[in-house]
Write a structure and sequence with these properties.
The chain is α/β, with parallel strands linked by helices and 279 residues long. The protein is built from 13 helices and seven strands.
């Protein structure tokens, strides 16, 4: 099979599906990483990093060379708008443009199955990519849980509420979600103490109160990574020198934060990658 991991930005595919990529390659599949919003600030350097990360994990990489959100629209320079801006402000024509480019790539490379971001964490480019994927009918699609955002307790529940999923997920309280802000390394940079946290954290907490209409039929698959896979995965992630110091600065932090999330969410100290199918 030919598998395509659709990555809103450089590093999203390997961060979120690094074990899945290895498992697919071991099964004899061909794996493509397709980066969409990879041009703009530091784009040239990050594309070099992506080439090396893909080489280390064994996947083929491709770039669509669309501009990152803050570089194409000043609306998204404030972090609050970048992560919590209304998708309705994105022109319909732009989502259709991304959809068309993805469909053309899938056809040109005979892709059998594509993985798209769930949109957990609510970055606008992740939600645009998710929206484009939901429109594609010519290629089977699954949706991966965006890492590192997904390891913030409550983010999965909030996103599924927003999508109208019927998934039966463990209940998360606002107190649990708030506590995890100070217990995940990447959140010290993504949600630092100060104005951004004061403005944005209440909005993330409020999303837990939103009731899903449960109209979206949802099923999940879970892949539990092995220790050798995790070692290779972190070796690949270490190629992202621009970003990894803000997410997982070392292997111990990578493992600690991932296992802590799974322990809180599912009661097991495992490294798991989940993907979802919607009907």
């Amino acid at each position: 099979m030919k598998i395509c991991i659709v990555s809103p930005h450089i590093d999203d595919a390997i961060l979120s599906c690094g074990a899945q990529i290895q498992r697919r390659l071991a099964a004899g599949d061909e794996v493509f990483i397709l980066d969409i919003f990879c041009d703009g600030t530091n784009g040239d350097n990050r594309q070099i990093e992506e080439a090396e990360a893909a080489r280390r994990i064994g996947a083929k990489h491709f770039f669509l060379h669309e501009l990152d959100a803050p570089d194409r629209d000043p609306r998204y320079i404030p972090q609050k708008e970048l992560f919590l801006g209304d998708l309705k402000h994105v022109p319909e024509s732009f989502i259709a443009h991304i959809q068309k480019r993805l469909e053309d790539f899938f056809a040109a490379h005979a892709v059998d199955l594509a993985y798209f971001p769930l949109g957990a964490g609510t970055h606008i480019d992740h939600r645009i990519t998710h929206a484009a994927g939901r429109r594609i009918k010519t290629t089977p699609i699954r949706y991966y849980e965006d890492r590192p955002y997904i390891i913030w307790t409550g983010i999965l529940q909030s996103r599924m509420n927003d999508l109208g999923s019927d998934a039966d997920l463990p209940e998360v309280t606002k107190a649990q979600m708030t506590a995890s802000v100070d217990n995940r390394y990447y959140l010290t940079h993504f949600m630092p103490k100060g104005q951004h946290r004061d403005e944005s954290l209440p909005l993330y907490l409020a999303a837990l109160d939103k009731q899903s209409n449960r109209s979206l039929k949802s099923t999940s698959e879970t892949l539990v990574a092995t220790e050798p896979e995790l070692k290779i995965l972190y070796y690949a992630l270490a190629a992202y020198t621009s970003q990894m110091k803000l997410i997982y600065p070392d292997y111990d932090t990578f493992i600690k934060d991932s296992l802590a999330y799974e322990k809180e969410a599912n009661g097991r100290e495992i490294y798991a990658e989940r993907s979802w199918a919607f009907a």
